[in-house]
């Protein structure tokens, strides 16, 4: 049995299959066949070639340069603030922070003082509760081993060697966001697609005084690179007062999708704005940072003003894709389209041989086995005589009439 099976497999290995064309006059099956072909053709013509533009060679992720500059003046309760004070970092780049609220701890000097009550396990009743030399990474300094009265009230905390007085939540609070919605942000951006050797900047006008008068507007001036801070926050769907108080991160997304088969003037950026930090996650939302301003009193004692700043951080994100006609992807997608049209025939063959009433008759007409004399000399299967036309007609006189 094994030898017979091996001989059969060896013989079948040398078989050759060639398609046989049968015309089946069935309107339902013909309708399904043409509809499948039509859907495949529409998919490739409309989606693949028109929407996806698969006849083009493409490049994603352009090389990009970004320069930002903020202008504006605002006021707190007792002070006028200009750009040099509320913008960090001052040189401008793809990320810029605009301070809208600060907590100030003035006149800090190096010395010893009570630890902040906000630090874990900082409260005490006696010196035994404070271990000298102990360092809490969430605290402000190194403990001296003494339990001392707090800045206010009857509580006591462990004494630390640090910048004193420590930041304890009772610092002066200044809100800078009153005029902040009218701040303007200049965003200069230029891109380069190295594969196509294409470069372009996003300032459309060449006039020297253009930037002095324009402000971005989606309808009247869509290519002006100057944005109002209030406009950016509004387009991101946020409340400005709430955002200025707690801080947050807003993304300015610049999308350069360019069809390089068209003229250069058709390649222009599209803008979108959205909040990047998780708004509804209390542990992760908001944005703040600390920095100090140092000076000396009487030329000897180093003193600093500690500032905890809350602000709106602007992240400029550039992405895009460029495409240009290329013969190779065009040929590949055309070949794929022509090949995929054959799916209709495969589907109809499956219906024909599986679900039709006379599927056995169709199968008999579709598949034939022919053995030539060369196959006999090679020791293959003996020829199987095909039924003659008369036999076929006598056994199934209506068979050909149904094809």
TrEMBL record:
> What S-S linkages are listed for this chain?
113-164, 124-147, 130-158, 214-224, 258-267
GO BP terms: namely:
response to ATP
Organism superkingdom:
Eukaryota
Annotated localization: Cell membrane; Membrane
Q: Name one GO molecular function term.
A: ATP binding
Keyword list (alphabetical) reads: ATP-binding, Cell membrane, Disulfide bond, Glycoprotein, Ion channel, Ion transport, Ligand-gated ion channel, Membrane, Nucleotide-binding, Receptor, Transmembrane, Transmembrane helix, Transport
Which segments carry the region annotation Disordered?
Answer: 376-403
Underlying gene:
P2rx2
**Glycan attachment positions:** 182
- The primary site where this protein sits is membrane
Q: Polar residues bias: where? A: 387-396
* CC annotations in GO: plasma membrane; postsynapse
Tell me the residue numbers annotated for binding ATP. 69-71, 184, 288-290, 308
The free-text function statement in the UniProt record for this protein reads: Receptor for ATP that acts as a ligand-gated ion channel. ATP-gated nonselective transmembrane cation channel permeable to potassium, sodium and calcium. Activation by extracellular ATP induces a variety of cellular responses, such as excitatory postsynaptic responses in sensory neurons, neuromuscular junctions (NMJ) formation, hearing, perception of taste and peristalsis. In the inner ear, regulates sound transduction and auditory neurotransmission, outer hair cell electromotility, inner ear gap junctions, and K(+) recycling. Mediates synaptic transmission between neurons and from neurons to smooth muscle.
> What is this enzyme's catalytic activity, as reactions?
K(+)(in) = K(+)(out); Na(+)(in) = Na(+)(out); Ca(2+)(in) = Ca(2+)(out)
- Assembly information from the UniProt record: Homotrimer and heterotrimer; functional P2XRs are organized as homomeric and heteromeric trimers. Homotrimer. Forms heterotrimer with P2RX1. Forms heterotrimer with P2RX6. Forms heterotrimer with P2RX3.
Q: Does the keyword Glycosyltransferase apply?
A: no
InterPro entries in UniProt? P2X2_purnocptor (IPR003045), P2X_extracellular_dom_sf (IPR027309), P2X_purnocptor (IPR001429), P2X_receptor (IPR059116), P2X_RECEPTOR_CS (IPR053792)
UniProt-recorded name of the protein: P2X purinoceptor
Report TM segments. 31-49, 334-356
Q: Report membrane topology.
A: Multi-pass membrane protein
UniProt record similarity statement = Belongs to the P2X receptor family.
């Amino acid at each position: 049995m094994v030898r017979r099976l091996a001989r059969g497999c060896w013989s079948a290995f040398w078989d050759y299959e060639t398609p046989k064309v049968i015309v089946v006059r069935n309107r339902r099956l013909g309708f399904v066949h043409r509809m499948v072909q039509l859907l495949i053709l529409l998919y490739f013509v409309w989606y693949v070639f028109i929407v996806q533009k698969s006849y083009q060679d493409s490049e994603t992720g352009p090389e990009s340069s970004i320069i930002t500059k903020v202008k504006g003046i605002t006021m707190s309760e007792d002070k006028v603030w200009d750009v040099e004070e509320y913008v960090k970092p001052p040189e401008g780049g793809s990320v810029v922070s605009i301070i809208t609220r600060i907590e100030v701890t003035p006149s800090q000097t190096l010395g010893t003082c009570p630890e902040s009550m906000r630090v874990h396990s900082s409260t005490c009743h006696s010196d035994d509760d404070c271990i000298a030399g102990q360092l809490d990474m969430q605290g402000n300094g190194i403990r001296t081993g003494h339990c001392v009265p707090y800045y206010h009230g009857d509580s006591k905390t462990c004494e630390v060697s640090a910048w004193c007085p420590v930041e304890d939540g009772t610092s002066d609070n200044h809100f800078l966001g009153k005029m902040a919605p009218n701040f303007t942000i200049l965003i200069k951006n230029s891109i380069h697609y190295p594969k196509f050797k294409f470069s372009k900047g996003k300032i459309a006008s060449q006039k020297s005084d253009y930037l002095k008068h324009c402000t971005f507007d989606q309808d009247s001036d869509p290519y002006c690179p100057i944005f109002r801070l209030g406009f950016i926050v509004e387009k991101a769907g946020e409340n400005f007062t709430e955002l200025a108080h707690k801080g947050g991160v807003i993304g300015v997304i610049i999308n350069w999708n360019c069809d390089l088969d068209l003229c250069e003037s058709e390649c222009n950026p599209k803008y979108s704005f959205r909040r990047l930090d998780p708004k509804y996650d209390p542990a992760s939302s908001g944005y703040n940072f600390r920095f100090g301003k140092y000076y000396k009193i009487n030329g000897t004692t180093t003193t600093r003003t500690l500032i905890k700043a809350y602000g709106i951080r602007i992240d400029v994100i550039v992405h895009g894709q460029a495409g240009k006609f290329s013969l190779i992807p065009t040929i590949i997608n055309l070949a794929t389209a022509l090949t995929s049209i054959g799916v209709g025939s495969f589907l109809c063959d499956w219906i024909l041989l599986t679900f039709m009433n006379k599927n056995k008759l169709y199968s008999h007409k579709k598949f034939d086995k022919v053995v030539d004399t060369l196959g006999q000399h090679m020791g293959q299967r003996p020829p199987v005589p095909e039924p003659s036309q008369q036999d076929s007609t006598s056994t199934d006189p209506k068979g050909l009439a149904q094809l």
